[in-house]
Structure formats: C-alpha cells, structure tokens
Design a protein that fits this description.
This protein is mostly helical. 69% of the residues lie in helices and 0% in strands. Helix 1 packs antiparallel against helix 2 and helix 3 crosses helix 4. The radius of gyration is 34 Å and the shape is elongated.
Length: 170
C-alpha cells in the first residue's frame, strides 16, 4: 500500500470541491450584485420622486405668487430645472447618474453646493415629517414632577430681610 492509488482520486475530489466552492462564491457574488442593483434602482426612483415632488411644490408656489414677479419667475425656472433633473435620474442607470453629477459638480461647484444644501434641507424636512410624533411633555417636566423649589417665582433671588438700620445685608 504505497498510497499512489489514492492521490489521483484525492486530487479529483479536491478539484471537485474547489469547483463547487468557486461556483458557490460566483453565485453569491451575483446575488449580492443583483441585490445592490435592485436597491440602487429603488433609491434612484425614490430620489427622482422627491425631486419631482419638489418641482411640483415650486410650480404651485409660482402659481400662488403674483404673475411676473421675480419670485414667481425664479420658482418657475427652478421647477423646470428640477423636473429635468428628475427625468434624467429616472432615465439613467446609477453609474451614469453618478458620472453626470460628478461632471456637473466639477463644472459648477457653487451651484452644486447650493443644490446639495437645498436637497439636504428637503431631505431633512422629509425625514422630520416621516418621523413619529413625539410628545412635548417628554422634554419638559410636568407640574406634578417639577421641583417645587424651581418654580418661576422662586427662581429669582429672594430679598434679604432688612436690619434695624433699614438696610439689607448682601
């Protein structure tokens, strides 16, 4: 029993296990890639919806201000540009959107930063409106739990009693 008969069989088994492992890794990688793409597409659609909603709000604001006013003109212009951005986001894949945004940021850094700030405010407003309502009583003590010494009337310094001479000490 020199073991030479087992070596080819072992090698064949090892090769089979290696191939199975490679196939499992490739499959997991493909599933992860598909999941990332699906999430990116959904996020892209959500962003396009937000931009479109902001565009609609600006159109409404433009219609409510006086015709021909500078505010109305600015709102209308911004609404048109945001509608174009929303359409671009919807019609490109995530990589193209990223490249487009990067190129725009390099060509127009001030406009990009202003847009990023505006988008941040919109996102914060959206997040705040989506958050569950919190009660104000959580932040402030109620009268039953408030320290009786720290009432508004007692939070100011108390007058010192007068002495026989009529002057207070302190």
């Amino acid at each position: 029993m020199d073991g030479t008969n087992k070596t080819p069989k072992s090698t064949t088994q090892n090769d089979g296990v290696k191939e199975q492992a490679k196939a499992a890794v490739a499959s997991a990688k493909e599933q992860a890639k598909d999941e990332v793409n699906a999430r990116a597409s959904q996020t892209q659609e959500d962003i396009a919806d937000e931009v479109s909603g902001t565009s609609d709000a600006l159109r409404k604001a433009a219609s409510e201000v006086r015709d021909g006013s500078p505010q109305g003109t600015a709102f209308s212009y911004a609404a048109e540009r945001l509608a174009d951005v929303s359409d671009s986001i919807r019609n490109q894949d995530a990589g193209q959107v990223f490249d487009t945004v990067t190129q725009y940021a390099r060509r127009h850094p001030i406009a990009f930063l202003g847009g990023a700030a505006a988008l941040g405010m919109v996102a914060a407003r959206f997040a705040k409106s989506s958050a569950p309502a919190q009660h104000a009583s959580v932040d402030r003590p109620t009268p039953s739990t408030a320290d009786p010494v720290m009432t508004p009337e007692r939070s100011e310094p108390q007058a010192q009693p007068a002495t026989k001479s009529g002057y207070s000490h302190g």
